[in-house]
Design brief:
With 658 residues, the chain is an alpha/beta fold. The protein has 24 helices and 22 strands. It has a nine-stranded mixed beta sheet with strand order 6-5-4-7-8-10-9-11-12, with helices on both faces. A four-stranded antiparallel beta sheet has the order 14-21-18-19. The protein has a four-stranded mixed beta sheet with strand order 15-17-16-20.
Length: 658
């Protein structure tokens, strides 16, 4: 008589267990169905989701050697679930988390009876702050998942890692979490860095956040010298369980020190709209004492971007408190369940010294599209925290990302709070004064490769940098959509096609072509490129290339910026392409790209100089490639014995001695 399997696994779980892509698991099922050692048959079918015995799958992977995980048998629990368990059930997940947390505190938990498990939970969590009620509910259920919890700990190698695994699988089963989903590692590191910068000496840190990974990272960064306080509630219980197994002590709220830093993640629930998000931030602001500070991370659509009138007034009320010291708009892709949503970071607190409300300023930065590397995080936090200082501190700080805005002017804004931030600041007067000398030095260094460009070291006015939207409005440039091409038209002859992926490697341009007559029949009104057109894309990264020849087809989603010949407004195609290459990425963000300009009389000689330098660089690259080939052939000849290398100096010395 067969027994029911203790763990079930679907094809996505098979792929996770084997360390392969999801389609590979499906291919195994079909390809090896009739093999001598066939892929196991499903034992349950939930619609289009067949489920298999996890032990049979692990044994099959181990026997056949398929996949990339030689420890499949030991890791099966990490990719499977009991038949009566679902990672989308929040109550069931809470019970499983509680079992793992209790297992970290009680040796040989799996050897206890259900009543002994309930008593162990009562002894461990006498005030029922983290796991007692969940364990009681699980015992009433019959304690069916204790073995599963033990298996997860063994597969993940520790209770802490097992809890993180459960959190990830719960989040993956609930992609509708939206803005309230888990933060990615870079965003977590940024918030932890900001908290650490504000913490100072022996404060209390209040983790008003439901993100367990964020809370654990902050607790780890702060170390043992900081008291951590959590609010009450279901989310707090989940965070307490993670901190418990990570070995972090949680203090009582009554132990709050004379100075505290609050960390708030908004929204805490996917049902919260912009109004609810702003209300939560307002409550954080009102809870701060004069010595306190706060870090708030949430959707840019609520904290930074343009709002409806009612929400705009609510945000202005928060700004009117004078506590908002720093504001930064961040990139997309920082929330697992809302990859197209941009985040924003707020720093709140009182400035040092007695600064009247009317004279307060706020550090404002726009990092849309910027990767949160360690250096970027450090410089951004340094800029924003500088807003906590007085006038002398601000003058002494060298700012990389932020500019300063009167806090009163932020209250009056009807649009984005970072609309005035210039991504690429112009050179300072001191830097501009040094440029002629630097140009002379650079010209001397390349004299052997290029005739130096003639320059006149005179100061003159140049048009200010402007956004693409402004330049289109003023008629200096046009945006032209790419053509949606049928892949069946592509061939090896005809008109050159430029795709968005070609912009990563412009040398590949020309490999894809379309027959001119076939293209004209399908797209009779489509314009070909003209010399000087800037072909660009907006995702996954911003990239651009200048078409110096023209007569090409641009395939959507790539597009074209065409500078108006009669009125270029100081735009130079090569400079436009360079500015786009470092610009933020994402849908619609191209309208905010800032493009530098030059004096009109400079356009022609500047373009000629750039063309000459490009030609010289290409010649040097060709020479370098020929030298590389020569070296490779010499090595091949010497190592194969086909040729003998002659030491001419040694031969000459030998001839002399004879």
């Amino acid at each position: 008589m067969s027994t029911a399997p203790s763990l079930l696994i679907d094809l996505a779980g098979v792929a996770r267990l084997a360390g392969v892509q999801r389609p590979v698991a499906s291919m195994w099922r079909s390809r090896f169905a009739a093999a001598p050692d066939p892929f196991p048959e499903p034992i349950a079918d939930e619609g289009d989701r067949p489920r298999f015995d996890a032990e049979q799958i692990a044994d099959w992977l181990a026997r056949t050697g398929h996949g990339n995980n030689p420890e499949a048998r030991a890791d099966a629990a990490a990719a499977a679930t009991p038949p009566d368990f679902s990672f989308s059930d929040a109550s069931a997940v809470a019970e499983l988390q509680a079992l793992i947390a209790l297992h970290a505190q009680i040796d040989a938990l799996d050897e206890l009876s259900p009543s002994e498990i309930a008593q162990a939970a009562a002894d461990t969590d006498a005030h029922d702050q983290s796991l007692r009620r969940e364990i009681t509910a699980h015992v009433a259920r019959g304690a069916p998942w204790l073995a599963f919890a033990t298996g997860l700990i063994d597969a993940a190698y520790s209770p802490s890692a097992a809890l993180r695994l459960v959190n990830r699988r719960h989040a993956a089963s609930n992609r509708a979490a939206g803005s309230a989903g888990s933060l990615v590692a870079d965003a977590i590191a940024l918030v932890a860095d900001a908290t650490l910068a504000l913490a100072g000496n022996n404060p209390t840190v209040m983790l008003d956040a439901s993100d367990t990974e964020l809370s654990s990272a902050i607790a780890t960064a702060l170390g043992d010298d900081v008291s951590i306080v959590l609010p009450s509630g279901v989310d707090s219980r989940r965070v307490r369980r993670q901190l418990l197994v990570d070995g972090h002590w949680v203090a009582d709220a009554a132990e709050r020190a004379s100075r505290s830093v609050t960390v708030a993640r908004v929204p805490s629930d996917r049902s919260e709209d912009v109004s609810a998000i702003l209300q939560s931030v307002d409550e954080v602001s009102l809870s701060l004492r004069d010595s306190d500070a706060a870090v708030v991370v949430g959707p840019a659509r609520a904290l930074v971007d343009q709002l409806a009138p009612a929400d705009e007034r609510a945000r202005a009320d928060i700004l009117r408190s004078g506590r908002v010291r720093g504001i930064a708009r961040l990139s997309t892709g920082l929330v697992d369940s809302a990859v197209r949503e941009s985040l924003a970071l707020w720093i709140l607190g009182e400035p040092k010294g007695e600064v009247p409300l009317a004279q307060r300023i706020t550090a404002v930065a726009d990092l849309t599209g910027a990767a949160l590397t360690p250096a970027t995080r450090a410089d951004l936090i340094s800029d924003l925290v500088a807003g906590m200082g007085g006038g002398r501190d601000l003058r002494a700080h060298s700012f990389r990302f932020a500019s300063f805005v009167a806090t009163a002017s932020l209250q009056a804004r009807s649009g984005s709070l970072v609309a005035s931030v210039t991504r690429k600041p112009a050179a300072t007067t001191e830097e501009a004064a040094e440029l002629p000398a630097l140009l002379d030095i650079a010209a001397e260094a390349v004299r052997a490769d290029l005739a130096p460009i003639e320059i006149a070291p005179d100061q003159h006015d140049v048009p200010r940098a402007a956004s693409v939207a402004e330049l289109i409005r003023d008629g200096h440039v046009r945006r032209i959509q790419g053509t949606r091409l049928d892949p069946a038209l592509l061939g090896s002859e005809g008109l050159v096609v430029v795709t968005a992926s070609d912009l990563d490697e412009p040398a590949s341009i020309g490999s894809a072509r379309v027959d001119q007559l076939a293209f004209a029949g399908r797209h009779p009104s489509t314009q070909l490129t003209r010399p000087g057109d800037v072909i660009f894309r907006t995702s996954p990264t911003a990239a651009a290339w200048v078409d110096t020849d023209g007569s090409k087809i641009v395939a959507y989603p790539a597009r074209v910026l065409r500078i108006t010949t009669a009125d270029p407004g100081g735009l130079v195609p090569e400079i436009v392409a360079a500015d786009i290459a470092g610009a933020p990425a994402g849908p619609g963000v191209w309208k905010r790209w800032t493009l530098r300009r030059v004096a009109p009389r400079t356009i022609a000689p500047l373009r000629q100089a750039i063309a000459d330098i490009t030609t010289a660089r290409r010649d040097l690259e060709d020479r370098a490639a020929r030298l590389t080939d020569y070296a490779a052939l010499i090595i091949a000849g010497a190592t194969s014995g086909a040729v003998t290398m002659i030491d001419l100096d040694h031969a000459a010395d030998a001839a002399t001695t004879q």
